[in-house]
Amino acid sequence: MEFRAVQKWERISPVKARLVADNVRGLDVQDALEMLMFMPQKAAKIIYKTVASALANAEHVEGGEKPDVDRLYVKTLTVDTGPTLKRISYRAYGRANRKRRRMSHVTVVLAERELADDELGKKKEHRTSFFRRRKKERVETEEDAVEAKPGAPKQPRRPRKKSRKKLTEERKGKRKTVQKRPEQ
Question: What pTM, to 2 d.p., does this model score?
Answer without folding.
Answer: 0.63
